[in-house]
Specification:
alpha/beta; Rossmann fold; eight-stranded mixed β-sheet; two-stranded antiparallel ribbon; binds ligand PMT; phosphopantothenate--cysteine ligase activity; flavoprotein; Coenzyme A biosynthesis bifunctional protein CoaBC
Length: 219
């Protein structure tokens, strides 16, 4: 049983990996499966929210009662997110967004006639940072996947992006796995969620977000 903690609230969620094209058949991506973000979407819908799920490359089925928008690149994810931000109360950024894109992707398959080749990369927009810095920003929740110094790096990200809540997890434990173990970082400190299936973690996270969100709107 999940109490309807987010009844009537509009929740925007990104999930999965983005894909940056190199040529007609190749690209740059990462090993995010989308499982964590889809679990968060399902938990938010169970809690009564109207959920819009902006999904990168993943074959996962759409969770019940969620509106899904499929995107490929970080730029497409940014555009889908920016379109929905003005009508969202909460934004949860679970996606593993590629930090760079290829400057001149080739329309055709690149032939392997050279021994070495160089790709010119340019930085992608930081979707979460952009949303969090808007005057009409919804309540923003970030994730941080770190391979070392988890708390130090995650708290630095939370402060840099001005987030009321950030979910810290270790890449080695989280990426692609069915279970996860996370630490919630907010202004009150740290709160550990012990290893459990991603849906259990997502339900606990949604309860935490609902309580912080309620407090933030009462001020
Ligand atoms: O998909 P799974 O296999 O289930 O794995 C889940 C997960 C490990 C991908 C997930 O739990 C997670 O940690 N997601 C964040 C991944 C990440 O690498 O974040 P980051 O440290 O690069 O970025 C920090 C935050 O900024 C994230 O909320 C991210 O969505 C956001 N971001 C980052 C870069 C960018 N260009 N735009 C963004 O919005």
């Amino acid at each position: 049983f999940q109490p309807k903690l987010l009844r009537g609230k509009r929740v925007l969620i990104t999930a999965g990996a983005t894909f940056e094209r190199i040529d007609a058949v190749r690209g740059i991506t990462n090993t995010s499966s989308g499982k964590m973000g889809f679990a968060v979407a399902r938990a938010a819908a169970e809690a009564g929210a109207e959920v819009t799920l902006v999904a990168g490359d993943t074959v996962l089925p759409t969770p019940a009662d969620c509106q899904r928008i499929n995107v490929k690149s970080a730029q497409q994810m940014l555009e889908a997110v920016e379109q929905h931000v003005p009508v969202s109360d909460i934004f949860i950024s679970v996606a593993a967004v590629a930090d760079y894109h290829v400057v001149n992707p080739s329309e055709h398959k690149i032939k392997k006639d050279a021994v070495t080749m160089t790709l010119e990369l340019a930085a992608n927009p930081d979707i979460l940072a952009r949303v969090a810095s808007r005057a009409d920003a919804p309540f923003c929740v970030g994730f941080a996947a770190e391979s070392e110094k988890l708390l130090e790096h995650a708290e630095a990200k939370r402060l840099r992006k001005h987030l009321p809540l950030l979910v810290a997890n270790l890449v080695q434990q989280a990426m692609g796995a069915d279970d996860n173990e996370v630490i919630l970082l907010d202004d009150a400190g740290q709160h550990k969620l012990v290893r459990a299936p991603k849906l259990d973690i997502a339900r606990q996270l949604i309860a935490h977000i609902a309580s912080l969100y309620q407090r933030s709107t009462k001020q």
